[in-house]
Amino acid sequence: MSTIKELDSTLKVFEELESEVRSYIRSFPVTFEKSKGHSLWDQDGKEYIDFFAGAGALNYGHNPPLLKEQLLRYIAEDGISHSLDMGTKAKANFLTKFHEVILEPRNLNYKVMFPGPTGTNTVESALKLARKVTGRDSIISFTNAFHGMTLGSLSITGNSFKRHGAGVPLQNSVSMPFDKFLGTNVDTLDYLERFLEDNGSGVALPAGIIVETVQGEGGINVAEEAWLKRLADICNRWEILLIIDDVQAGCGRTGTFFSFEPAGIEPDIVCMSKSISGYGIPMAITLLKPEYDVWDPGEHNGTFRGHNLAFITATEALEYWKDDNLSGEVEEKGLKVGEFLDQLVREYPQLQGETRGRGLMRGIACKEEGLAEKICEQAFERGLIMETAGPDSEVFKIMPPLTITHNALDTGLAIIEDSIKMCIQK
Amino acid sequence: MSTIKELDSTLKVFEELESEVRSYIRSFPVTFEKSKGHSLWDQDGKEYIDFFAGAGALNYGHNPPLLKEQLLRYIAEDGISHSLDMGTKAKANFLTKFHEVILEPRNLNYKVMFPGPTGTNTVESALKLARKVTGRDSIISFTNAFHGMTLGSLSITGNSFKRHGAGVPLQNSVSMPFDKFLGTNVDTLDYLERFLEDNGSGVALPAGIIVETVQGEGGINVAEEAWLKRLADICNRWEILLIIDDVQAGCGRTGTFFSFEPAGIEPDIVCMSKSISGYGIPMAITLLKPEYDVWDPGEHNGTFRGHNLAFITATEALEYWKDDNLSGEVEEKGLKVGEFLDQLVREYPQLQGETRGRGLMRGIACKEEGLAEKICEQAFERGLIMETAGPDSEVFKIMPPLTITHNALDTGLAIIEDSIKMCIQK
Amino acid sequence: MSTIKELDSTLKVFEELESEVRSYIRSFPVTFEKSKGHSLWDQDGKEYIDFFAGAGALNYGHNPPLLKEQLLRYIAEDGISHSLDMGTKAKANFLTKFHEVILEPRNLNYKVMFPGPTGTNTVESALKLARKVTGRDSIISFTNAFHGMTLGSLSITGNSFKRHGAGVPLQNSVSMPFDKFLGTNVDTLDYLERFLEDNGSGVALPAGIIVETVQGEGGINVAEEAWLKRLADICNRWEILLIIDDVQAGCGRTGTFFSFEPAGIEPDIVCMSKSISGYGIPMAITLLKPEYDVWDPGEHNGTFRGHNLAFITATEALEYWKDDNLSGEVEEKGLKVGEFLDQLVREYPQLQGETRGRGLMRGIACKEEGLAEKICEQAFERGLIMETAGPDSEVFKIMPPLTITHNALDTGLAIIEDSIKMCIQK
Amino acid sequence: MSTIKELDSTLKVFEELESEVRSYIRSFPVTFEKSKGHSLWDQDGKEYIDFFAGAGALNYGHNPPLLKEQLLRYIAEDGISHSLDMGTKAKANFLTKFHEVILEPRNLNYKVMFPGPTGTNTVESALKLARKVTGRDSIISFTNAFHGMTLGSLSITGNSFKRHGAGVPLQNSVSMPFDKFLGTNVDTLDYLERFLEDNGSGVALPAGIIVETVQGEGGINVAEEAWLKRLADICNRWEILLIIDDVQAGCGRTGTFFSFEPAGIEPDIVCMSKSISGYGIPMAITLLKPEYDVWDPGEHNGTFRGHNLAFITATEALEYWKDDNLSGEVEEKGLKVGEFLDQLVREYPQLQGETRGRGLMRGIACKEEGLAEKICEQAFERGLIMETAGPDSEVFKIMPPLTITHNALDTGLAIIEDSIKMCIQK
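Above: the input entities. Below: the structure tokens describing the complete assembly.
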């Protein structure tokens, strides 16, 4: 290893000091320094438009001004930073405002649990609770689901590379086909029901069924409203807890605060994280129907379940949901992106593309192996941050901040088209 | 449920809106609002001395001024908040300074992995890596270990209540007796070795052995240096990866930066979190010997593995380790607390107390069921925040910020003595 | 408990001294004493025609004369009874004759393993071997499969009541839909393949796929030849070991010695038991392709893997396979039974019956809950032993000895029709 | 492969047609043809004295005359061979006589279950029942335990080679140190209790504890009576089911019918197989206290749970237990063997031997690697069949039929001494 003295380039720092597990830095090989709204700047001052938004953790953009202001004030005034699950004013304010702004207007009745500050924490808490409530062992999840990297969440995640990373067999879960996994003509819930109703199917009645309404990592796969409704009915009929993992699709990414609102369903448990703090800082909540709040005190815990800086920004972020403006914007921009993608598919048949998505969670699945990755690479050279999704990284994924300007959105889309042209020529 | 209007008391907020899983708020039934150094204030302005320090997440006290300053500046300048594992200047600075200030002076050679921002994330990453490196399944952990609440970490955690919360059998782990678990006359590693060497023992050669040098949650149980050295020898001889979980005992809690330094061992993997950010905000790192850095890119990931606000405070916190001042202070204060506790045990035989601990991680195990909890309760009424540990909450635990003033330390200790007197009288 | 003196009735013996787990005695509440060919007699001398044949363990009828003669001679001459896996002349003779009469004429090349004397022993050995050969963990089995009651076999058995009996979650297996599980229009192997080919499906590449060509316990479900061929192709393409569990369908039950012969496939492993000894006494063999014979000596063992009395009768039983006579008989009788059942379905629409089966493994699935059981009950009263199958015991199952006379077969079928009439009237 | 024509030597038959998993034939490379009492003859007419007795399956010797007579008569009269769990006269007679001769005189009250005809079947049934009765998951077993090769039994077997054969991690079991595993000065039950009583031990309260009073395969390790008594007390105190696996040590091998009689304990479940049929043919029973007979009908089943030929010989074998003659003989011969072994240890210090055992289940553990195997090899050349035991095959094991003549016993012992001399010289 070279001495620290020689580490003049910051990329060299990562190569020499950080583990090989690092990943996105390989797609975006620069060192970022500053960010604002829909933009990042690297340390050479080059600006990038962000169509990635922290994988859905930056729905309100980088460092949104009102949140930033509250955060600075709270820190400056020596507000409590870390509180485990003691009572703090910051937490009380969040709970109250979340109830008033989010739950009450939607006629939803949930208790809020702070399970630790990440997506996988909320998912693991949901699995525990479903098992405790029902006394059953297994969880049904879906093909191409992504729920997290700790052992419980990994056992319900579809990706074989991630699963293999566990190093041990993953247990107590059954993978069922997501909507349209078997083609557009097959209602995959027929299959699921057949397994539930046949006493010899080898699939036990599960404690819970966990689903993302739009699978982000899995390839921007959208579950139809009717499919979700039927899934909720099935859960209800068989007394299975329905768990919506809204970690990526929630907080307005698809237009409504909860991604399941258009389907008109009421999940038993909802998992939220990523954009819930609104500032890209760690926070997660688990929402549970009061009748299922059978936890013993401390039965699930975690050092950072009381991250008050996050409570401050999360509370301020709820301002976005006091009216329908943001929802309207997402719908509008989403349609724009969707139409643009449809047009790309038509105009560039070499893509063999399939448009996917809902709200501002969109993408195109490209048939040719490696093509989506090449398009992202070209886009990055042109100043656009965009990533792939899907089991074979076959989808390029458009997930800008919901607050992106139309201008920046148009610029980004134009970069994509340029990048496609470049890739197709080659 | 009452309407929000009626929720005038903040405690009522928690009762009505937060899940029953909340725990510490039941021991400390107030709403905290502000904190600084070794003190917290509730919303009525009452001050509390903190002998809990966020369960070890606040080693440098609440809102340490220099860290706060850097944090405010970084936020004000729109430094990047969230970056997944992209390269950022904040991360590069942390990596460089951690290498210079911590690793190099100790002749330690580790790659740094960012596994997600909590203790259980780093532990889960360590388990995966040990399994990948060795191709083996099981992990040996110790009685009364606490490693986290997600399924992998829970499988190596001793506490039966927490384990039961999993709702499924926990697998691929074997629990062995921690130092002195079988009394002071038994070297429990004889037992461990016997199991390893006998081909019929029913205990397979494990991928790794994970251990806390001082078990915090488990009851302030201290592993002797000789025991740790022998454990390291055993791991070396059998080609088992030695994983030190320094989440609670690290970052100076026992006097040295790493808790294992006095034992003179070099673990293969080190798990750190809690006080690594220095500001009570979520961050974790996994240190691994370069020869074991066999991760594929992205094989373990997580949304909040790039929490740059934490990188900023963590980098500044390393200033504490540029000289021996803090270590010296911890030693001095630790001895003071230790002597005080010894004296309590002598003077109050009704405690049937046993003094435990190292550095500023101390406590007394009380024989009578419920006594330690009562003492904490009394202490809280007198303005001291202190918690219990151990499988039956039988230990009251003294873990103030390392930076506590001698004055406050003395005041806190006096409160403890008063509380004991009160409890014993009853 | 009454004293032994009072136990005058033999049924009382079972009630008082045998565990509640006993099962068939509840359907056939008499004490049997003697048997020959297709008949049993109870201790009162009443004769019963046997349409059950020991659940497929008595394909050549009760106490077939030539086997009986060999058995008596061997015992009389003090042939070795028990030999573990030492070499005995009885075993050598079986191995040689099995090779000559069964394997060579079919151009099959298998090594023979003696895994212990029961069906579940051979299945457990097959699972171990598939895992060892491939280094993979999981096994794919099918809905309504029945493979045995020990933990490994149970994990690939579909029946929820049996699975629940394990008392622990069953692991390392995935249940896929058997042929026609999703209706006659769906090729369920499309589904299986979709899961194998998608890297995000959550279903890992398995070590092996285990299948019964006709599911006996599962409800006399027949896999089509084309389905089996395609399954073999899939296994071949993905380098998955194909395991045929021929415990019930083998030894001529469907007409050919191996049930998979008509499909023209060559499984990698074949599990046989039940009728392999030919005399209803415990014996099992596992056939494996020589290239997969990677066992270490003694890696799988068992006290009764050398049951020489069974080797004697099994060797003699191979005489049935020196020509095509028996196969021809099974075909002829099978067709007769099939036509009779079709006719029943037509003539008794109240059955809402569905004819199932192949060879002399036939039955009718009745829609009305409990109807099949009632028919069996009536049949027993009329001197016919017949049992149900299927996850809800909805199929009455016709499995007489292959050697049954046409006369007895006709009598038995007539009893069934009478029983149906009786049940429908009620 | 050679054509069948060329397979003139019977050993060649095994090499070419049988799987590599075969084991004992490698220690005893001949083909056996006949057996009687304590003798076997190979096909060349050479006689061997049997100090192995089918690993405990031939306690009454090969083909004991009275049993043979009953067996021949029953077969000749067309007694029922195979009956699943229907009622048969043969089973009724066994149940009644077992109750009268074995249970009543010992004041034991057990229901009898027929779990399938092998040791691993009875063990798997015991595990299921313990889990059902208690609602708990895990089973505690002991170091160097051997309980069988199917997945449930394998999970509680100590041998690492056998365990590894599973190909998947073995679960829901905890291995605790058997008596004297940690040396003669350590009461290993202190250790077990410490784990049970500490709520943070990581070892859950188990459903059952399963133990062999003398570990046969594990190295002829004897549990002291006091240790067994204390174990029974522990089980009673913690409401854990005590399961005695008497498959090898039962049926008189240690002098009494049940091996646990001298300890004066009453297990909740007893597993028996091997010599229960008395003729070396497959049979097993599970004894359970009536209050634990909570099985649903058919919850555990198996094709060969009604092996009536075995019931016939097993019933006749009970004649041995109508008086104390056999017990007395075992004691006498056992003492003779024990003294002889003690003398060997004294006279041949090169053995570095340790005498082990009880009744006619004896042996010497030799320190030098491979020595015990060499002694067995030499003994075989001299006409004695003897095997090794222990995790490293370090024990040569003396387990003749209980009915061996003093003459043959002396001859066998003399062969052992000769073999030792030969091995030591080398």
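Note for the figure: Confidence is low (pLDDT under 50) at residues 1-8 of chain A.
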